[in-house]
Specification:
Elements lengths: L1 H4 L2 H11 L10 H16 L4 H13 L2 H23 L5 H35 L11 E2 L3 E2 L16 H8 L6 H38 L1
Antiparallel strand pairs: 1-2
Helix pairs in contact: 3-8, 4-6, 5-6
Length: 213
């Protein structure tokens, strides 16, 4: 339910259940709980906040909607520039009309920028797939996509968890703490989730087959 339907109640139940795997004698229980959350996010292929910001930025710059919005905003800005040059050499009535037209187009630009922002945030919530390369990991046939680094998506991977901790500034994790408490816990939780997910898929598949029989 958490992975496929984004059910936050299911996430909270999973989080509470998997936190039972944290050893009672763990010295960094705060980080252990964080590792459990990270394992849940990796399993469900959900982007974390840094990836969400990255995805939003990519959708704002590399989508069909972005191209349409930017084309409109450029057109309105050109019109504003032309009208601004006409100010000062016209009658008071004409000047008032020009100012009103300029302000209208400025509002159109602001509205379109907000519309693009809302669109990008909505798309980011739907998928972690990179919009720049369409999930292929490459652009122009052979060039590695700079948006996702060639992975095809913007999500936390299992092999990038320690790097994520460093970049997030959560804690300076020593090698001993990492190997003794955190790495093993993360792997146990993640592998357990994958196993349970596979088992659930098998059970559901059998139920569907029996219903169709």
């Amino acid at each position: 339910m958490w992975r496929w339907l984004n059910d936050m109640y299911a996430f909270e139940r999973l989080q509470k259940k998997t936190e039972e795997l944290i050893p009672a004698d763990a010295k960094r229980k705060d980080l252990c709980k964080h590792m459990v959350t990270l394992a849940l996010m990796v399993f469900a292929e959900k982007p974390l906040e840094p990836q969400q910001r990255r995805l939003t930025s990519l959708w704002k710059n590399h989508s069909e909607q972005a191209r349409r919005s930017k084309r409109l905003m450029r057109t309105w800005q050109v019109q504003i520039n032309v009208m601004e040059k006409q100010l000062g050499g016209e009658s008071a009535f004409k000047t008032e009309q020009l100012i009103a037209a300029i302000e209208k187009r400025k509002q159109w630009i602001a509205d379109e920028r907000q519309r693009l922002e809302e669109y990008a945030k909505a798309q980011e919530k739907k998928s972690g797939q990179c919009p720049k390369c369409g999930g292929t990991g490459v652009t122009r046939v052979v060039d590695t996509c700079s948006g996702c680094g060639g992975s095809g998506g913007v999500m936390l991977k299992a092999d990038g968890v320690r790097k994520h901790l460093r970049m997030a500034g959560i804690s300076q994790v020593s090698d001993s703490v990492w190997s003794r408490e955190l790495e093993g816990l993360f792997e146990r939780v993640l592998m357990g989730l994958y196993w349970e997910g596979s088992e659930m898929s098998r059970v559901l598949g059998e139920c569907l087959l029996s219903e169709n029989a």
